[in-house]
Amino acid sequence: MNEKTIFYTPATGYPDLEAKIAYGLARVGIEAFESEKVLIKPLSGYYAVKIDGNRDKLNKAFNFLCKRILRSGYIFSSTPGIKGKAIKALVVKEKEYTLEQYVSLKSLLENKKSEAICRHESKELVGAILGLAAETSYHRSRNKIDIQGTGRPTNPKRLCKSCALLATLGTWYASFIFNIAKKEVMVIPTPKNEIRGEDIEKIFSIQHMLRKEYIKSDIPSNLIPLIFLSEIPSATSILWNFDLFVALYFSPGNRGYHIENISLIPIENYLGFLEDPYNVATVDEMKVRGAFKALQELNKIIGCVSR
Ligand SMILES: [Zn+2]
């Protein structure tokens, strides 16, 4: 029988969290079936994840992945923005989790103060989710409406455990995490067009190129996209269908995290520029020489070219 499943991300208003949950759902689909059976479709501010296969097998694959990967605190403590007590709350317990809440789309209404940001009804909510949704450190709410009218965030932000687990699976499947000086950088490719399972697998396969990367100089944050993409020149062809969400995490004195910078960046101009291997070599050379002023100028020029 040819069953189809469509999951929807919860439309939280946080672009990084939405993409991570979509990647988590896609990861489950690829685990249960194969990458050709999985498709991510961007809708306005959220995603549909279409999988050729039945829900029963998907639920089983979700639990299997959670138990295999997320039963210890290791992955969580390696995720920028997650620390201390939050890790304990996130670790997978001996119980079954379900994907049923992703089958229907939540209405795009304002969040009530007591609700989880995903609006899923769950007894198990987790807080301290800076590592899953960087903008929870700022004032922001669904559809950018200030619900309380006070200009203050609707804190404390909480998320249901299934969303947190999916977002963590997604983070470690299709995002890039590396260090620049004392900061941790998370780069999440966010889909602008339909993305096939095979494309996500390709991103997964190039992650390792940056995983251990440690850029010592404290480069200006606006140079991160150029530097990042020049580090993975062979992989840039995969990224034409994506924007980049870049979040800079800093943990002063190794205590709590705060976010230094967040940006959502269209990257066509960079990809076009880096198609030429001479340009990649030039950026490399400037990087090695620490010629950041010149790189800033170059960065401006690339940004201005219309394509
Ligand atoms: Zn949820």
Provide an overview of this structure.
With 307 residues, this protein is an alpha+beta fold. The protein has 2 domains: 1-100 and 114-174, no CATH class; 182-307, no CATH class. It has 11 helices and 11 strands. The protein has helices at residues 15-32, 55-69, 74-77, 85-90, 161-174, 197-206, 208-211, 224-231, 268-274, 277-288, 292-304; strands spanning 4-8, 38-42, 47-52, 125-126, 159-160, 176-180, 183-191, 195-196, 214-215, 242-250, 258-266. The strands form 3 sheets. A 5-stranded mixed β-sheet has the order 9-6-7-10-11. Strands 1-3-2-8 form a 4-stranded antiparallel β-sheet. A two-stranded antiparallel sheet has the order 4-5. A hairpin with a 7-residue loop joins strand 10 and strand 11 (258-266). Helix 1 (15-32) packs across helix 5 (161-174). The longest helix is centred in the N-terminal third of the chain and has 18 residues, at 15-32. The radius of gyration is 19 Å and the shape is globular. It binds zinc ion. Zinc ion (ZN) binds at residues 10, 116, 118, 120, 159-160, 162-163.
